Amino acid sequence: MVAAARAIPVPETAGVRLEVDEVSHQFELEKAPLPVLWQVSFSAAPGEFVALLGPSGCGKSTLLRLLAGLDEPTSGRLIVDGAPIAGPDPARILVFQDPTLYPWRTVAGNVALGLEARGLLRSQRDRIGAALDLVGLSGFGAAYPRQLSGGMAQRAALARALVNDPRLLLLDEPLGKLDSLTRITMQAELVRLWQEAGFTALLVTHDVEEALFLAQRVVIFSDRPARIKAEVQVDLSYPRHRGDPRLADLRHDVLSLLGLGQTW
After folding, report:
1. Do 54 and 221 form a contact (C-beta atoms < 8 A)?
2. How many angstroms separate the CA atoms of 33 and 205, rounded?
3. Cα 199 from Cα 13, distance rounded (Å)
């Protein structure tokens, strides 16, 4: 008899409402200001999946750090469910391109980090196994990061995020270093996880097809300092198919907005 998969409880309203209001940001570089974002404004509805596309180094990852509460914007407002972001919060989790797993900890030990930090490990230890089940790593809790493939390590990083019940998942090119076949598999897994958990998702990627395959809406940024050039609604249902002619049309539209229309 096959045991039923453990489930992580999902809040009734899982995803946040996000508002980015006239946000600008700059760094100090050699005692001179380096503008990175300029009056960026957009919103995301609860449970929406939004992708951010734009030239490398234009400020997309900086925006995710601001939304995670790791930095404060130079000006403008970041609002989640009507309240300003005032610092890090386990409801807002940032997943990086590198899995950043601690090599001396097992997979389960890495996934447990958020619960430990919040003093919840004793009472919610069962959530670790549930998170590993959710990302397809059941049975690998005792493994160490060195024993995982790249795709498995990224699944572990996602489990570490999902165990905290994030209401806003910030994804900074999480599939960027995977081989093409693993990346395709993980794209489908991300859609599944988002649909099951209901969080609001914000994905930074340089892959136009990935953005269109995953997201409901694509926000396109200019060169640094990043401004919003356009927003493209992805009017395709799930599951999506890479050979869909509508996907090809949208790809051409997005590439044109990025100044690369002649390449397709």
Report:
1. yes
2. 26
3. 9
Residue with tokens 């039923």: 4
pTM as predicted = 0.89
**β-sheet bridge partners, residue 50:** 202, 217
Ordered structural domains, the chain, with CATH: 18-91+167-263 (3.40.50.300), 100-164 (no CATH)
Print pLDDT tens along the chain (264 aa): 333 334 444 444 579 999 999 999 998 887 788 899 999 999 999 999 999 999 888 899 999 999 999 999 999 999 999 999 999 998 999 999 889 999 999 999 999 998 988 888 888 889 999 999 989 899 899 999 999 999 999 999 999 999 988 999 999 999 888 889 989 999 999 999 999 999 999 999 999 999 999 999 999 999 999 999 999 999 999 999 989 999 999 999 999 998 886 665
DSSP-derived letter for residue 187 is H
Instruction: Report helix angle 126-134 to 150-162, nearest 10.
Output: 130
Torsions phi, psi for 95 (to 5 deg): -110, 125
Q: Are residues 252 and 261 in contact, defined by beta-carbon separation less than 8 angstroms?
A: yes
Cβ count within 10 A of residue 261? 12
Residue 223, φ and ψ in degrees, nearest 5 = -60, 165
Nearest C-alpha neighbor of 152 from the set 161, 143, 165 = 143
* Amino acid at position 169, single letter: L
User: Residue with structure tokens 């229309």?
Assistant: 261
